[in-house]
Amino acid sequence: MRKIVILAVAAAALMTSACNTVAGVGQDISAAGKVVSHTADKAKH
Question: Is the pTM value of this prediction over 0.70?
Fold first, then answer.
């Protein structure tokens, strides 16, 4: 659970610093979702 929180904070920081366009926002949100999903899948196994 702690890893998920750390990754979510890191993803939020990257989103706010790297988003210059609406398309960039979508890409950053998608990347953050993939990181959270991957972490959740690893936690299951």
Answer: no
User: How confident is the model at residue 23, as a pLDDT?
Assistant: 67
Give the distance between the most distant pair of CA atoms in the chain. 37
21: left (phi over 0), alpha (psi -120 to 50) or beta: beta
Taking only the tens place, the pLDDT of each residue in 7-17 is 888 888 877 76
Per DSSP, the chain holds a count of helices (H) and strands (E) of 2, 0
Q: What angle do CA 12, 13, 17 make, to 5 degrees?
A: 115
User: Cα dist. 22→2, 7, 8, 28, 45 in Å?
Assistant: 30, 22, 20, 10, 35
